[in-house]
Each structure stands twice: as structure tokens, then as C-alpha cells.
Amino acid sequence: MNPISDHLQENLRILFVGYNPSIRSGETGHHYANPNNRFYRILHQAGLTPRLYKPQEDGDLLQLGYGFTNIVARPTLTAAEITPEEYREGRVILRNKIETYRPRVVCFVGKGVYEQFSGKRGMAWGVQPEPVVAGVIEYVCPSSSGLVRMKLEDMVEIFRGMLAYSQAERSTT
């Protein structure tokens, strides 16, 4: 199964970073394509999208300033299948993408994604006080996987917190 394409461009409002594609995403070529994944529903309910998008429309979100990538490109059934070597390699590749494209906000969709990227543990949801990449807001949200048992409304509230950061003008200092 092939990795799915990133959706990247310079000056994104938000770059969403997942663990890796699901098997369903690998089959379809679209981000967050598993029918049990709540990603697009969360974005809409949080006010981040004007309507409910479908996984097949993931490329259309570039028009809203939203991009997609993963810390590991290989599709798996669960994140537990990702090897330490894949995370080490992915950490370097992801940092390069962030430094190259300079999104306003990097949203890590899952605390574990941010832990793997930053090497930090025990962070709170939301903005991280000491970003790995200077000048970029690093924001941690829960994974939208159907395997996560957090209530949808709690997840929506955490994602909603990105609105202020994603819509603010970039600092020129």
C-alpha cells in the first residue's frame, strides 16, 4: 500500500499532522478516510470549515488554508504498528516540512504525535509554550480516530481553540 500525498503549500493557516494514514486512507488516497474517523465532523462543528467536508475533498481544504501531512507516511491499521525508526525518520522529515512551508499553526492530531515530534511528555491540550520550530504555533488536539473514547463535544472544544490563532494576522516581528 502506498503512502498518501501531502497537501502542502506555503503560508497555510493550519497544517494538520496525524500519526500516519489508516488502511482506508491508503486505499483511497485521502486523509482521515476511515468512516469511523471524526476529523471532518470535528472541524465543521468547531467552526473551522463552513460546511461538512468528505475525505475525498481533502485537497479542497487547501483553499481554506488547511494542509495535511503525517509524521509517518506508511499506512497501518493502528499507530502501535509504527516502528521507532519510522518515528525517528519522520520527525526529521516533518520538521523540514514545517520549516519549509511555515504554516501559522501546526495542529498535531493526537498527543502521541506531538510527543514523537517534540520528545516532550505530559503536555496539555492547545498551544505549546516552547515550540520545536520557532515562529510557528504548535497546537495539540486529541486524535480524531474512532478508537479514541473522548466525547465528541470535548474534542470539538479543543479544536475550536485554534480559531483565534489560525485567523490572526501573522506577526511581522
Topology:
Blueprint: E1 14-18, H1 23-28, H2 39-45, E2 66-70, H3 84-101, E3 105-109, H4 111-118, E4 126-127, E5 137-141, H5 152-160, H6 163-167
Parallel strand pairs: 1-2, 1-3, 3-5
Antiparallel strand pairs: 4-5
GO molecular function: pyrimidine-specific mismatch base pair DNA N-glycosylase activity; uracil DNA N-glycosylase activity
Domain Uracil-DNA glycosylase-like: 7-155
Protein name: Mismatch-specific DNA-glycosylase
List keywords for this structure.
31% helix; Uracil-DNA Glycosylase, subunit E; 6 helices; alpha/beta; 173 residues
State the domain count: 1
Described by strand count, sense and barrel closure, the largest sheet is: 5 strands, mixed
Question: How helix-rich are the residues, as a percent range?
Answer: 25-40%
Beta-strand percentage? Answer: 5-15%
Silhouette: globular
Write the element-wise H/E pattern from the N-terminal end onward: EHHEHEHEEHH
Structural class: alpha/beta
CATH superfamily: Uracil-DNA glycosylase-like domain
What's the quaternary structure here?
A: single chain
- Low-pLDDT stretches: none
Total strands: 5
| CATH architecture level-2 label | 3-Layer(aba) Sandwich
Biggest sheet: strand arrangement: 2-1-3-5-4
Count the DSSP helices. Answer: 6
Average pLDDT across residues? 93
CATH topology: Uracil-DNA Glycosylase, subunit E
CATH class equals Alpha Beta
Distance between the termini: 44 Å
Q: Radius of gyration, Cα only, in angstroms?
A: 15 Å
Keywords: DNA damage, DNA repair, Hydrolase
Pfam family, one: UDG
Protein name: Mismatch-specific DNA-glycosylase
GO molecular function: pyrimidine-specific mismatch base pair DNA N-glycosylase activity; uracil DNA N-glycosylase activity
